[in-house]
């Protein structure tokens, strides 16, 4: 009697059949002959996969085990490659419906960046392999005792840990999106202050010392007089504030036409430089080495 597995799903059945067909052709050399029968029913499509009877009953159990592995492997790849983005989009739509469509699309892209972990190629491979291994093991365990599988239902009821992981990733993406949005709003506010502020100096040199402390010089390379900063410093003196906040406040109060940024090493104050470039659009120049840099490095 022919053995088989009946697979049903609301989507990607044609792709499943194509991928299974390619993979299972490798089994022909093992004497395993597979037959497919496809049938649509309502919202679901069914793909019935049969191992044709070879007449050798002693090998049927082994055939079934090998066959199940190939089916589980292809389904796990499809879940990661196709269902995953659909599931994430659905989570965002259901849990964060109050965002605009464009904002939800941005959150989707942030989440997909987390699932793919684009920081390092090796990390991408590791995170995907870890998720695939979890899904594959669950599928193999299920197919050991079942010859019918509904992929949509399997994801919903049998992959709860995987679903929770996707929910966590969406939540992290929303946090990242909110921080990015707040940062942009903050930058816009600072730009407004710069635009309405009367310029008090033509040029300011910002020297970033290795300790993280900033030093401000005018175009004649003299330390900027406290009279330019007095009001802001008094406002900030009792606050919990870092050097970067103080620097930006000071520069807004001066509103220079040009800012030259001097760093003592390539890694120092990168965030400060980025923020300044965003606030003082077109007015910030990064120094690649000059007499001022040489003097303060000594």
From TrEMBL:
InterPro entries: Spore_YtxC. It comes from the Bacteria. It holds the Pfam family YtxC. This is Sporulation protein YtxC. The lineage of its organism: Bacteria, Bacillati, Bacillota, Clostridia, Eubacteriales.
